[in-house]
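Journal club prep — side note

Before the paper discussion, L.F. wants everyone to see what a predicted structure for a comparable chain looks like in C-alpha cell form. Sequence:
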Amino acid sequence: MSALVDVGYRRVVVGLGGFRIRLRARSLVVGIALAAAVIALAVVSLGLGSYALDPAQVITAFAGGGTDLDRTVVLEWRLPRTLAAVTLGALLAVSGALFQTVTRNPLASPDILGLSNGAFAGMLLTLTLVSSSWPALTVGAVVGGVSVALVIGALARRGGVQGFRLIVIGIGISAMLASLNTWMLLQVELETAMFASAWGAGSLNGVTAAPLGGALACAAPLLVGVAVLVPRLRQLDLGDDVAAATGARPALVRGAALLLGVGLVSIATAVVGPIAFVALAAPQIARRLARTPYLSLALAALVGALLLLASDVIAQHLLPVMLPAGVVTVTLGGIYLVVTIIQEIRRRA
C-alpha cells in the first residue's frame, strides 16, 4: 500500500500491515530506473561474445530452457563475470559514499586516498611471501587497506577526518604506494609479476563463482553493519552538535563508517584488483540524479553496479582490443572529473 504525501517534496509512503517506510518520490523513480538499467545491461552482457545470444535466448536459458550449450554459456561461463561487475561495483560505490558522507568531501574516495593501492600492496606481499590462494590474498588485501587507513588517519589526526589535510595526505600516500607496488613487481618472478600486473589493472577476466561467493560472504556482514549505521549517518548530516543532541556519537559513527568502507573496498579489490573512480563518481552521480541533499547508499550502489558493468561491456566488446575494465573506468572517471570541474567553474562564474 502506498500514498503520496506533500512535505515540500513528493514523498511516497509504502507500507504493509504495521510496517511503514517513507521514500522521496524522485529517489524511488530514479532507483527503479537504475535497477531496470542494470538488469537490461546484464541481460545484454550475458548474450554478447563469440557465441552470441539475443535477450530472449538469455532469459530462456535463465528459466531452464534453450539448449544445453545456451545454459552452459549463460549460467556457467558468463554469469559469474556479470554478477562480479554488478556486486563489486555496488560495494565500491557504497564504500565511496561512506567516505564522502563522513568527510563531507566529494573528492574523498578509497582510490583517491590510496586504500586501493594499499590493498594492492597487501595482496602483492601475500602473493610473494605467503600464498597465492584467494582467501590468503583477500586477507592480505584487507590488512593492506586497513593499515593504510590507519596511517592516513594518524597523519591527518590534527585536521580531523573532514579536513582537506586528509585528502592531500591520502593522495601523497597513494602515490608512494603506487611506486612501492611497481618496485615490488620488478623484484618478483616473471610469472608472478604478469599475474599481479593483470590483477593490478583491475580486470574481471577469469573471475569465477568461488572467489565471488567468498567475497559476497565476507561483504554480507559489512553491508548489514552499513544498514544499521544509516540512521546515524543521516544524523551526522545535520551537524555534530545536532547529532550528539539526538543521541548519536559522531566520533564513533565516523570510525565505524570508515572501517566498514575500508573493508568493502578491500574485498572488492581482492577479487578484481584496484578499480578507479567508481567509488568516487557513483555517489555524486546518484545524488545529482535524485537531487537529494545527502548521499543515498542504495542509489550509489545501483550507479556503481551500472558503471562497472558498462565499463566491462565496453572493455570486452566495444574496443578494438580487449582491455581490463579498470582502464575504462579510469577513462570514464577522467571525463566525469572534467565535466564536474566545468560545472563548478560555471556555477562560481
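L.F.'s comment for the group: The chain has 13 helices and three strands. Keep this in mind when we get to the figures.
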